[in-house]
Specification:
Layout: H1 2-12, E1 17-20, H2 26-41, H3 50-62, E2 66-69
């Protein structure tokens, strides 16, 4: 359990960007994220690859979201 917590802390420090969309709320992001996850990860059978993540990011970008540095 201690190792899992340490891994989560290390990985959370790696995120140097977030998604942003002018005029959108947190609820808007959650809805778009849910939609894009369903589109990108359907058929992944628990095995998420970089290609799946790229599709997820492309989906969010197509819905007007953009990556912004923290």
């Amino acid at each position: 359990m201690r190792y899992l917590f340490a891994a989560i802390l290390l990985l959370s420090g790696c995120a140097t960007w977030h998604w942003e969309k002018r005029g959108a709320s947190a609820a808007d992001y959650e809805a778009d994220e849910k939609y894009c996850k369903l589109q990108a990860y359907s058929g992944a059978d628990g095995m998420v690859t970089k290609a799946h993540v790229r599709r997820m990011h492309d989906c969010l970008a197509a819905r007007g979201w953009r990556k912004v540095d923290n």
